Fold this sequence. Notes:
Layout: H1 6-27, H2 34-47, E1 51-55, H3 58-68, E2 75-80, H4 86-93, E3 97-101, H5 112-125, E4 129-136, H6 145-155, E5 158-162, E6 170-171, E7 174-175, E8 182-186, E9 200-204, H7 207-217, H8 239-270, E10 290-293, H9 297-309, H10 339-347, E11 348-351, H11 359-370, E12 379-380, E13 383-384
Parallel strand pairs: 2-3, 2-4, 4-5, 5-8
Antiparallel strand pairs: 1-9, 6-7, 8-9, 10-11, 12-13
Helix pairs in contact: 1-8, 2-8, 3-4, 3-7, 5-6, 8-11
Amino acid sequence: MQFCDLNKQYKRIESEVTSRTKAVLQHQKFIMGPEVQELEKRLADFVGVKHVIPCASGTDALTIPLMAYNLEKTDAVFVPSFTFFASAESISLAGGTPVFIDSDASSFNISVVSLRKAIESTIEENALTPRGIMAVDLFGQPADYTEIHDIANQYGLFIIEDAAQSFGAVYRDKRAGSLGNVGATSFFPSKPLGCYGDGGAIFTDDDQLAEIMRSISIHGKGKDKYDNIRIGLNSRLDTLQAAILLAKLDVFEDEIKLRNKVAEHYSQILSSLFELPVVCPDRTSVWAQYTIKTSGQAARNKIVEQLKQQGIPTAVYYPTPIHLSTAYKNLEYKRGYLPVCEKLSEQVLSLPMHPYLNEENIQRIASTIKSINLLDIIAKQGSVL
């Protein structure tokens, strides 16, 4: 059993992938070829934005807009700690300082209560200047952008939506990627929409910002490639990856429906065992991961081991909140500072999730879990199983 079975997807789209990649091999425009421009248009139509800048990775898709905002070391960008390292790393790469925020225990997304508190504390301490918010859409579901925009407007902050895990989801009739001043996504192979290597894209309606970000993505290019008007990156999505993404886009909306069916099935058979992921009523999820909450590390370790013995893979996203990582020890965050995300890091466990996970495999996963003797260590919201 695969945690994310890309081979089944490939078999479905093999002829289209072959046709599109063959066309690239024939025209030989491997960098910024016509498939890249076609992808830009299709992504813009899908998300509902004016500008799409494809780039080399999801990390670059976050770093480039932050570079466009000309961050300085004393500029604070507020980011959840319970997420992949790149969400914070991009802030540092662009020259700013991340200020870490706690999570909502149910949705796993950024806590707006913690966000407001951190902004006010930063203003009071007067060591950093609040500049922006990196709002991460974790596990497939957008964050609460109505509240985030209210806070951003109050304090004059920009919003970057990290939609690496939510691309294709909807928040109040708007697609993920269109919910901040800038949206960013990743096309890493295991993402809901992934290529066969690294890749990413940036989304915005801001004409001036789009021009700057496109320049940054090509070595700070001006009127031509030898007119470098700013410091930039070499961050272009190559044409072969664009061709693969075009083939995958043809089936993407159907795959979102299939992911939701898998999630519904999981929830039906696991509801008596765990606290399950919650999708808020004003949004949808693309289920980048299906993540349950165990009672703690002992229970999680036992489940992982038993599933492994049956050939069933699992993953922990994320075992260490970023504020406790070695890379950010200089910021002197202490354990207990962000209690919700610290607890989540000990509880969460992601089960196999992809559009082609069949009922038989879901039942097998559930049966294996049910066979584990966890009477003393698995609980659902404090009640013993």
